[in-house]
Automatic annotation (TrEMBL):
PANTHER family: ALANINE--GLYOXYLATE AMINOTRANSFERASE 1, AMINOTRANSFERASE CLASS V
Pfam families recorded: Aminotran_5 (PF00266)
Names of the cofactor(s): pyridoxal 5'-phosphate
InterPro entries xrefs: Aminotrans_V_dom, Aminotrans_V_PyrdxlP_BS, PyrdxlP-dep_Trfase, PyrdxlP-dep_Trfase_major, PyrdxlP-dep_Trfase_small, SP_NH2Trfase/AEP_transaminase
Enzyme class: transferase
Signal peptide bounds: none
EC number: 2.-.-.-
Native species: Sulfolobus acidocaldarius (strain ATCC 33909 / DSM 639 / JCM 8929 / NBRC 15157 / NCIMB 11770)
Family indicated by similarity: Belongs to the class-V pyridoxal-phosphate-dependent aminotransferase family.
Residue ranges crossing the lipid bilayer per the database entry: none
Protein name as annotated: Conserved Archaeal aspartate aminotransferase
């Protein structure tokens, strides 16, 4: 009996290179040690590049996960501020759950399942009412749907104070241009397309956003970015600094992931993600299955939601592990049990995509789904060779 090797095609945490994991196996490194400060400094500088911003944006790397980065956005809000949540699914909705805990006024604009939020409707809403802050989700991980951020921001920029984009499932894999697009706060997490372990919320904030942080905010204590700001500034200056114990080992791993991103080049990384996503979709569609994302222009480079015809999602997820691949469950309540998600973020390759498609074919055939076995793999191969 041999131990099964498993390909993790999940939505996060994703497959992580050993050299990234090993970078965290450090001992005797305090949070003010030269080694650690250098790693932190490097991560802050690379964070700016990742979001394509210059020194006018302040980067933050804070403990927690994507949700901690989301909740830290309360640092930019004062009592009774008015917020619009434009949500394309489960993670967009999370903003409401966060903001409801604070003395804020929250409006909500949703989308149909599998679609993004209508840009016309967002524009109409912000023209009618003045909002202090609007949230958008770049790639909605529950469905794999991508919001056209550049276009959306262009249409609403003049009417709202601050625009926040959740890029947890996009940064490092999709085109992201925080400054050029006029996004004030763009956030992500370590465990997705950056390809590091979970444990860090990562964001950049514009000058305008940093101005608004000066007054009183509704933020709690731990996620008040005013407490983290001196740490970020000192670390970037190469000086040790403390507000609360940083996850030292995870920062070393993040630094290693950033080194590998640097070696690959961000543009190449985005292109690789795009190619892998196309190979996956070519395979899934020619098998005769439908995608959750309705419009081709909203297909993402990072997550593909696959609707099952007959079999239940739980059975597929259980069985496909025996075929050597792990996928992610569907989490959108409207499609519960009827779809699975293929995550393709981090260090994925077209070869991983073909392996995944072949495992999906075998699994579905075993479970009695009516699919064309072999045609998915054939289309995936053809796409890799001929585009
Ligand atoms: C788009 C999006 N936003 C926010 C989150 C929350 O991040 P975390 O689970 O790291 O707290 C996730 C997690 O998957 C996500 O996909």
């Amino acid at each position: 009996m041999i131990k099964r090797k498993r390909l993790l095609m999940h939505v996060g945490p994703v497959d992580i290179y050993d050299e990234v994991l090993y970078a965290g196996l450090k001992h005797n490194v305090g949070f003010s040690s030269e080694e650690f400060v250098q790693a932190f400094q490097f991560c802050l500088k690379e964070t700016r590049k990742l979001f394509r911003v210059d020194n006018s944006y302040q980067p933050f790397i804070i403990p927690g996960s994507g949700t901690s980065a989301m909740e830290s956005v309360t640092s930019f809000l004062g009592k009774d501020n008015k917020v619009l949540v434009a949500s394309n699914g489960v993670f967009g909705d999370r903003w409401v759950n966060i903001f409801k805990r604070y003395p804020l006024k929250v409006d909500y604009l949703g989308s149909e399942v599998g679609d993004y939020v209508s840009v016309d409707k967002i524009e109409e809403k912000v023209r009618k009412e003045k909002y202090d802050l609007v949230t958008l989700t770049h790639v909605e991980t529950s469905t794999g749907v991508r919001q056209p951020i550049e276009e959306t921001v262009k249409r609403i920029r003049d009417y709202v104070d601050l625009i926040v984009v959740d890029g947890v499932s996009s940064v490092g894999a999709e085109e992201v241009r925080a400054k050029d697009w006029g996004v004030d706060i763009y956030l992500t997490a370590s465990q997705k397309a950056i390809g590091a372990p979970p444990g860090l919320g990562i964001l950049v904030a514009s000058e305008k956003a940093m101005e608004s942080i000066k007054g009183d905010s509704v933020a709690g204590y731990y996620l008040d970015l005013r407490n983290w700001l001196p740490v970020m500034r000192n670390m970037e200056d190469g000086k040790g600094s403390y507000f609360a114990t940083p996850p030292v080992h995870t920062i070393f791993m993040l630094a290693q992931a950033f080194k590998l991103i640097q070696e690959e080049g961000l543009d190449n990384r985005i292109k690789r993600h795009e190619k892998v996503a196309k190979v996956i979709r070519a395979g899934i569609e020619s098998m005769g299955l439908r995608l959750v994302a309705k419009r081709p222009e909203s297909y993402s480079n990072t997550v593909t939601g696959v609707i099952l015809n007959k079999v239940r999602a739980e059975e597929v997820l259980k069985e496909i592990v025996n075929e050597g691949v792990e996928l992610a469950p569907g989490v959108h309540p409207a499609l519960q049990g009827r779809y699975v998600r293929i995550g393709h973020m981090g260090w994925v390759t077209p070869n991983d995509a073909v392996v995944t498609i072949s495992a999906v074919e075998r699994t579905l055939r075993k479970l009695g789904e009516d699919i064309n076995v072999g045609s998915g793999v054939r289309s995936a191969q053809a796409f890799i060779l001929d585009g």
